[in-house]
Structures are given as structure tokens and as C-alpha cells.
Amino acid sequence: MTSYLLVNSDRVVKVYEIHINEDKLPYRNLESYLEDPPYIVMDYMEYNSLRHYLRQVGRLSLSEAIRIAHEVALALKELHEMGMLHLDLKPENILFKDKDRKIIKLGDLGASKVYAGRSVEISQFSLAYSAPEVLMNKAATDKADVYSLGLIIYEMLMGFNPQQYVLRGLLPPMDPSIPPPIANLILRSLSLDPQMRPSIGEVLATLEMYMTQVNETQHTGHYMGG
Is 43 one of the annotated active-site residues of the chain? Predict the structure, then answer.
């Protein structure tokens, strides 16, 4: 949790203080907990999480999903450039500051680890959104965050998490209306082999290329994507 305090980014929920009395751990009972409860002081994100939003709407439009994915990828890029991995990326940790969901920040870096271009061992994660190497308790790299983002992009577009397909070596069903560059990005991000996944820079480049093409289409009426 202390890695939270190392982060200074407009794309990550700001944490001001973390209090955990390790002498009290593990808590023996409720009374022991209430004597000195742990707490975190952080920015308040008024408009809930991507998970809450997905429960309301089921699936997102392609344009909104790509916009949210782009903001998340920018946040991950900043973390990776700081030498950190998130390692617990999931819809619950993608938070909205405004009602239009334009200001997006990442929260809960509780599993995050300092990363210096090498792999790191991790011990805290969410099973449903973790990369295979994390689930097998192997060393993780920045490609583990790319995998989690791939799951989330898929879920935003298709309405469900494809993890059960991917871990069995099966291709998850893909809506044919999803443009090939985006579908290909998702499938590459979900490669079981971390080395086969795109870098976060490649993810951003693909998303930005699509966003540019959409903007051009709105002006010309012709989509130029493949």
C-alpha cells in the first residue's frame, strides 16, 4: 500500500495518508480492530467506478469504450514510466471524477510493485482480471497490466469478462462490428505468452489511430480503417 504514496500523477487517485498499525495484525477480533482501525485518506471520486457504470448499461458504445481505454492506457504508461506496475487493474479500480466520465483515474494500487525493467514477484491480485503468469505466481512485468486492460476493453464492448475463454486457450467470441484493428489489439493483449502482447505504447498508438480515423470520418463521412 505504501507504493500509493510514491505516485504523483493526475491520472491516479491521490493518496495523502495511509495508516496501518502492523503491530495489531492480524486482528484477533472486532474489538482489536476498533482500537486502531486502518484508514486511507485520498481524493474523493464522486461518480463511482467503471464497474458501477457497466452494471447500469451492460455494454458501452465503441467510441466510449475506446475513450475510456485510452485514458486508462495513459495512466498505465505513466505508472510504468515511474517504474511501477498496477497489477490489480479491474473495472472497480477505474474511477470517474465527473458525471460525463471524462476525468478518469486509477485507484487501489494495493498490489502495485516498484518495477525497474525487471520482473517482480506479486502476492495480491484479483483472479478475474489477472494475467496467467500472475495466476501461476510467476514473475510479472508491465505486460501483466496490458493483459488486464485487454480484458477490460473486451468487457466494455461485449458485456462480459472473457477470462474463462482465454485461460482455456479459446478465442472469445467477438462482435463483428468491432473494427479489426481494435479486435486484433484485444486478442494480442490477451496472449498467454507475455512476450506476444503489445507494449502499453503500442496499445496507445492503436487506440489513438482509431480515434483519429473516427474524427476524420466525422468530417469526411468515410471510414479509412482496416
Answer: no
Q: pLDDT tens across 28-85, in order?
A: 788 887 888 877 777 777 779 999 999 999 999 999 999 999 999 999 999 999 888 8
Asked if the structure places residue 58 within a domain, the reply is yes
Residue 145 near residue 85 (C-beta atoms within 8 A): yes
Residue type, 159: G
Q: Nearest 5°: CA angle at 224, between 189 and 74? A: 40
Q: Which entry of 10, 23, 36, 88 is annotated as an active-site residue? A: 88
Bin 223: left if φ > 0, else alpha if -120 < ψ < 50, else beta. beta
Q: Which of 59, 13, 19 is nearest to 177 (CA)?
A: 59
Q: What Å distances lie between residue 226 and 166, 181, 182, CA to CA?
A: 25, 7, 10
113 and 81 together in one domain? yes
Residue among 163, 150, 156, 145 nearest 101 (CA): 156
194-206 pLDDT per residue, tens: 999 999 999 999 9
* 8 plus 97 within the same structural domain: no
